[in-house]
Amino acid sequence: MKSAVIVFPGSNCDRDMAVALEKITGQKPQMVWHQDTTFDDVDFIALPGGFSYGDYLRCGAMSARSPIMAEVIKRAQAGVPTLGVCNGFQILTETKLLPGALMRNARLKFVCKDVALTVENDTSTFTKDYSKGQEILIPVAHHDGNFYADTETLDRLEGEGQVAFKYAEDINGAQRNIAGILNDKGNILGMMPHPERMIAKELGGTDGCALFTSILNTLG
Amino acid sequence: MKAKIHVTLKNGVLDPQGKAIEHALGTLGFDGVDAARQGKYIELDLTETDKAKAQAAVEEMCKKLLANTVIENYSIELE
Q1: Which fold is adopted by the domain A3-219?
Q2: Which terminal Cβ of chain B has fewer Cβ within 10 Å, N or C?
Q3: Which of B7, B8, B70 to mutate to test the interface with A (most CBs of A within 10 A)?
Q4: What distance in Å separates the CA atoms of residue A132 and residue A138, rounded to the nearest whole number?
Q5: ipTM score here?
Q6: Strands A188-191 and A178-182, how do they pair?
Q7: How high is the pLDDT of residue A92?
Q8: For residues A98-113, b (16+ Cβ closer than 10 Å) or e, as one string?
Q9: Strand, coil or helix: what is A167?
Q10: Once rounded to an integer, what is the mean pLDDT over residues A39-68?
């Protein structure tokens, strides 16, 4: 499985993502700079966490319009599995590849801790190695993770199984405790928690591994 | 020509920063503030001299970058 990690100025989880991908897929991902306009033919694209462009204007707003994103959008729309974590999730909503928006945490505090998530969808490319209802522990580190969408969109996301993960309890004011969502085709996942930081016991746990093995088992 | 753009959160979208401002004003003894909403103000110096064309261009800028229309409204003033 060949993968690419897109690197923006201010990304700070790009190397964690690369380590996780290499450890689980056995192949080093291609690191792609945001000003490039194309990259290798890959099976999987990751948009890492961080504070790209210093969160200027809105989190992810600048990155979503950077040169490489035209290519990422094209490939994601063509069906290439694409994962956005934290800032990557914010970028995916800013590109409109995923619905909704990530707003300032309801209690205005930066939240940095391990949180319990419940798995809501266990059939997607990204989640099939989990089981529905399973509780997993994954860290979050964000100031703007308060997921917002209108009621109609929320109903659709829940009704169509597009909610991948929920927070077991409210941490940031996100509507319906949504922590991660899929697009309607199921090939794009955006999530605020960081599975790439939970891939070894030494790092605090291994609950993030199944996300990467799910992708690997789907793509081979 | 100058474009003055206000970007504000849509009605119904929770604005925690506005809420905090509202509380802080109350703490300072300013009674009578029913609600506070925080937004952004952006100024652009445009080379365009035709008002209609400038309006259309700034609309595009708002839709494509300056506002996130999922959660925000924008208003444009040209002078």
Answers
A1: Rossmann fold (3.40.50)
A2: C
A3: B70
A4: 16
A5: 0.86
A6: antiparallel
A7: 98
A8: bbbbbbbbbeeeebee
A9: strand
A10: 97
